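Researcher: Good morning. I'm working through a list of sequences from a screen, and I'd like to move beyond sequence-only analysis. For each chain I'm collecting a predicted structure so we can compare shapes side by side. This is the next one on the list. No need for commentary yet; just the structure.
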Amino acid sequence: MYSKITGAFCFELMIKKIHIKRLDSYLLQTFLPLFLMTFAICLFLVLMQFLWKYVSDMVGKGLELKVLAEMFWYAALNLIPLALPLSILLASLMTFGNMGEDLQLLAIKSAGISLFRTMTPLIVLITFVSVGAFFFQNNAMPTIQTKFYSLLISIRQKSPELDIPEGVFYKGIDGYNIFVGKKNRNTGMLYDVMIYDVSKSSVDQMVVIICDSAEMKMSEDKLSLVFTMYHGQQFDNFQSGSPSMQREFVPYRRENFSKKQMLIEFDANFNRIDDATIEGNASSNYVSKNLSQLKHSIDSMKYELDSVNVIDRKMMKNYAYLSFRNSYPPEQKDSIFQKAEKLNVSLHPDSVFASKDLQTRNAILQNAYAKAENNGNDFMFRSMSKTSTQRIINRHWIEWHRKFTLPFACLVFFFIGAPLGSIVRKGGLGMPIVISVILFIIYYILDNVGYKMARDGVWAHWMGMWFSSMVLLPLGIFLTYKAMNDSVILNPDTYTMFFKKIFFIREKRNYPMKEVVIDKLPYHELNDQLNDLSQQVDDYLAKYRKLSYKTYWMDSGYDKALQSIKNKMETILNSVSNSRNLEILRKAEEYPVLINNQRPFVAGSRMARFCMYFFPIGILFKLFSFLFERRIKNDLYRIRALNSELAKLVEEASLFHRAI
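Model: Good morning. Structure tokens for this chain:
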């Protein structure tokens, strides 16, 4: 592996940082080709996603190659904000993964250069890329999006290329249903043709044309379709004078013809809408504005919305009184109450309403219902209008924040990809692509969730648009910190050992028979060693005491007696591994692997003290230690039993060896 590092590269690293700029240029020369390659690949992938989404709007409309090329050009520019963060993540991950896999990062660290210093030239480069992305979003993107959406809407509105199938009714022309029994593709003639003209307002006025053959051509201006029909009939109803006239008495007209021409409006031209249409649409013109224009539009709409709210509050004060009280002049109302005071009579609306006749009561109820319905509709319309305005304001704020979130996402993804590559130490297109796709999918989901929450007003606009960055930024800081401290957080062996401890997964011994044995098995000494080991186990079990809660967390956890038993057992098993007897080797493989310390944290450390004082966690780990202590006892009992069995096998092998 070291051979992959060029001699010149290692030499320059070792010269007391004299040629440290050479390292910067080397990193830039390594990163830039990967960045350009991954950017092109990511842009191609998102462009294919765009094509898959809008292919139905472009196929079958006879668009010129120039129009399609312009469409893909603006689509590619519009999708740069989606491809740029992913390409930075993938390129940084591949760059540092390759350097870690080829041990170049190890050579750099051995020269006294930190990982952060190694990343410095790329940090400067990504900073320039982020600043460029900001100016691209603010200055170029409004024009790009305006032209993109105007072209896309024009393509959607274009009439499809006319291709009438055989044997089915074709509804591609507005107001007409056309049936063709058979077509001659060489001559363009249509046979067994039926045309239903439903372009008029009423179904009763539908015109039906049946002919043996027909010929279809476009007019020179491509605004009309000319049908030339041969040997057929035309049926159409006269408009009935009375709506109550029975259907069977409606007069109709039948026309026989040998040749007839019919002109149908069908615009086959590509009419591109003006960019001002997008800019003038209040619901979508936010895409064509820069920061200053967005802020100006937001202030204007907020002022308008506040004015409408003030007017509505004034109107609500008036609507708080019943309408029929305000329908009388003030002097008439005063005279009514003065008469009531003179007569010493209290006016109750229910009693007054009950004194009226049925017709008057119905009229009062209908009038009240009509006024309530009108007021409700008015309030609903005003509420919908204000909700629509607020939604447009939210869209403007979203677009305002989006111009900053893209550059920031580029930096965040670099600080995720670079340290992650140095940790996993895997280059190429395998593991980096898997990790990049997973992280980008998470980012994309979080970004969409935040966007929808901000658009609907559930979250504040700044929270929704910065949600994905706020989630991924701590991950970038954490990975950078771990990579600078040479952490093994992503080393699979670390997690394997951890779960083996948690779930008491035992390691299995394996002693294959050696083909060449240098040190022969000392049969005469082995029995004495097994007896000494059994005696140590008995003494340990006799003196064994359980640890108290405080001792469990504050003691070092290192048991010298247990470690002595473990060392003695391993020495014996190393000698037994030289045996040529399969039974002895298989018996040696049955010995358990003793673990001297099973505590999750270093005794006396901050985490250990925290667990000790935080009783729910501390007691949970203490209960876990009971299982470990029980396992130690069972292992020791098993070692003592295996010692007796192994001693018998050794004695038999010794007698056999002497007999030979």
